[in-house]
Amino acid sequence: MEENNRKCFCHSEDEEFTHVHEFLGSTKLAELEEDPHNHRFAGVSDEVIEMGNTHVHDIFTRTDFYEDHFHEICVRTGPAICVGDGKHVHFVCGTTTEAEDHVHDFVFATLIQDPIGE
Length: 118
Hints:
Structural class: mainly beta
């Protein structure tokens, strides 16, 4: 990986993997009076961060471009929400970074972890 201040997600051979979640969504509209628009985003969360009897995940991604700008999303999910059969999702809400003098709010749920696994 090039030297560019990006976070590297590397595992040593003896480290155990936990799980991650896919996510996708759209921001809420911003600049309603001047230039109403939103952005789309998608990605994969970081691995488990234990929190008492549950866990959360960190999410770092960028939105798509709109008229030469994008926003970053850096947020921690809420705790696991059971959806049956031992599976769960996480609720996520927050605000993007500022670009072009505005921000966007967002609300979404992660996809189910390992949807076809046992």
